[in-house]
Amino acid sequence: MTAIEENRKLAPGKFQNPGITATGEARAFVDLQALNTLWVNTGTVCNIACANCYMESSPRNDQLVYISKQEVAAYLDEIADHRLGTSLIGFTGGEPFMNPDFISMLADALDRGHDAIVLTNAMLPMWHKRAALLELQEAYGERLIIRVSIDHYTRTVHENERGPRTWEPMIRGLRWLGQNDFTINVASRNMTGEPEAALRAGFRRLLSEHDISIDSTNPVDLVIFPEMDETADVPEITTRCWTLLSVSPEAQMCATARMVVQRKGDVRPAVVACTLLPYDPQFELGNTLTGAAHRVQLNHPHCAQFCVLGGASCA
Question: How many angstroms separate the CA atoms of 16 and 18, rounded?
Answer without folding.
Answer: 6
